Amino acid sequence: MTTDKRNERKGKSIVEILGEEKAEIWRKNLSKSLKLRWKNKGVSELTSKKLSESAKRNGFGGYHKKTGRGRHGQYKGIWCDSSWELAWVIYHLEHEITFNRNCEKFVYEFQGKKHNYIPDFKLTDGTYVEIKGYLDEKSKCKIDSFNHPLNVFMHKEMIPILNYVRNKYGNDFIKLYDKDEDNHLYKTKKISEEAKKINKEKSHQKWLKNQQEKIDLVLSSNIDFTKWGWIGEVSKLIGISYQKVRKWMKKCLPQIQIRPVHIIRPIIYCSKCQKVMTRAKYGMCVSCRLKGKTFKELYGEEKAKEISEKQKERWVKYKRIHPHGVRGSFSW
Predict the structure, then answer these.
(1) Longest dimension (CA), the chain
(2) Residue 40 covered by a domain
(3) Which one of 94, 173, 214, 279 has the fewest beta carbons within 10 angstroms of its own beta carbon?
(4) Residue 13: closest CA among 182, 159, 175, 217
(5) Is position 23 within any domain?
(6) Residues 316, 240: one domain?
(7) Residues 153 and 226 in one domain
(8) Ranges under pLDDT 50 in the chain
(9) What is the average pLDDT value for the chain, to the nearest integer?
């Protein structure tokens, strides 16, 4: 799948992507595969009865946050279990329609067993609101057995609400959740950052174990790291290139003091004209050394001829390349 298709499908439900008929077929196939997967991993009837009895004794059950499979979070003090609920809440708050999160339980029977049904929201009129992406047999039974006024928002009813929110805030309107510690999105980010730090430390320790032989070689050698040329000696010992030696030393042996990269050299002056020099080989600058002397006197006849030929070649190239010719005059 290309990135353009992914961006188009972002924030949309399965019904919007595939359509109602294909979405139902997809759900049926998925439910069959899940049943086959968990067939051998199921819980016996006795254990399920014991678990239900202990839950009733301890007061478990009812509505709890973070129990749904959707992208849940809190928006302006109202808890939402999915992105559709968030869109519904945004739409009703901006249109000044008052409502509350519902926590009341209503008993209904399905396949000879009693279950609790908790609608999503409650309006001030007393009507309850249920937001459903799809209807199965169990959800149909609970809606049919509900005796109070109930508004069910399926895909058709949610289309204008979703379009309103997406046009105003974009497809990633889930980012409108409050930045709390209980929020699902920001909690996962914190966990991922902590996990990255732990994984970095573990990988660094493994890398150090692999590099232990090289570390022992460097420590056993008598290399002076404060003098010039220590990089070449270390690279020969370990078998690493010159460019990677400093990084390797910082990672493996940070306790050793290394010669800094840029050391300020002492300022050297010419003995005659007192100009600043880069090299102090002869104690004088080039202009002072060559003043009043020819190439023959300095280098001899053979070297003087070689130098003059090289200079001629350079000036010929310069004439060809430069559009204005030679700057200044030159006498052979």
Answers:
(1) 119
(2) no
(3) 279
(4) 159
(5) no
(6) no
(7) no
(8) 181-186, 320-332
(9) 76
Q: What does pTM read for this prediction?
A: 0.42
What is the C-alpha to C-alpha distance for residues 275 and 270, in angstroms, rounded to an integer? Answer: 5
* Closest of 108, 143, 109, 107 to residue 128, by C-alpha: 143
The amino acid at 77: G
pLDDT of residue 36: 61
For residues 131 and 158, the answer to whether their CB atoms sit within 8 Å is yes
Asked if residue 198 and residue 153 are part of one domain, the reply reads: no
Residues in the chain: 332
Q: Token pair of 139, please?
A: 């959800």
The domain containing residue 86 runs over which residues?
A: 73-178
Residue 18 inside a domain? The answer is: no
CA–CA dist 163, 170 (Å, integer): 9
User: Rounded to a whole number, what is the distance in angstroms from the first to the last CA of the chain?
Assistant: 73
Q: What is the pLDDT of residue 191?
A: 58
pLDDT for residue 209: 83
- Whole-number pLDDT of residue 67: 58
Asked whether residue 5 is domain-assigned, the answer is no
**Residues 217, 302 within the same domain:** no
State the CB neighbour count (10 A cutoff) for residue 266: 5
Shared domain for 240 and 306, answered yes or no, is: no
CA distance 328 to 332: 13
- 174 and 77 in a common domain: yes
Q: What's the number of domains the chain is made of?
A: 3
Question: For tokens 């190239």, what's the residue?
Answer: 317
Helices (H) and strands (E) in the chain, counts: 14, 10
